[in-house]
Amino acid sequence: MTQISILGCGWLGLPLAKKLIQSGYVVKGSTTSIDKLSLLESWNILPYEIAVFEQEIVGPIAAFLDKSAVLIIDIPPKIRGIGGEDFVSKIQQLIPHIEQSSVSNVVFVSSTSVYADTNEIITEDIIHEPTTESGRQLLASENVLKSNPNFSKTIVRFGGLIGQDRHPIQFLAGRKNIENPLAPINLIHLEDCIGVLESIIKQGCWGETFNAVTPFHPSREDYYTKKARELHLELPEFNPDSASNGKIISSDKIHEVLQYSFKINPL
Description:
By secondary structure, this protein is of the alpha/beta class. It has nine helices and 13 strands.
């Protein structure tokens, strides 16, 4: 029975762990909160309190990785605000521990922020020119993992994450003078995030990079106005004179390689 370690049992990692257990995997899960250990255990996840810092890893990282064939890294960078972290250094801290463990395959949860807004259709082969600090650090972290010959790795670049308790309209409702009205949306539902990651593991699809975005791309103005009406929220107001810069993220490779069909239409 394959054992999987999930570094970061948060919004995505926790339901992913539950689904993998239902599918017959043994799952170890990490959290930075001692209060969450009992929650993980209640879902039959083997719980570990681990915190990854720029200069060290605090917690039983060797035991967390022991006997696992797959490591899923799902710890988003904390870049915003004063004193944003050096996320690349955190990933580098993990490397020797992975090398010394039983882990042979790594899945790294990344983001489509590694791509610039070029008003083009974006595939995995396009030249990367991230314009945000988060995008730059994620791309550098991807390269740190890709350059290591001691384990296989697959990179998954998710678009904007949505779910029952998480949606951008919650932050846009009632706002005025919003820019980029005609830029296309690139979103993916939590259920499809889990579906894509589970497909990669089940199929043993290593050494790949995937864009993971539901293939529906209406404009920001049309989509968020529609969502606000559906949820009876105050309508957002977009600036019609604002230049619209964006991109359409192609997920064709996921369909072609994994034969995965997206389940949830964000519309």
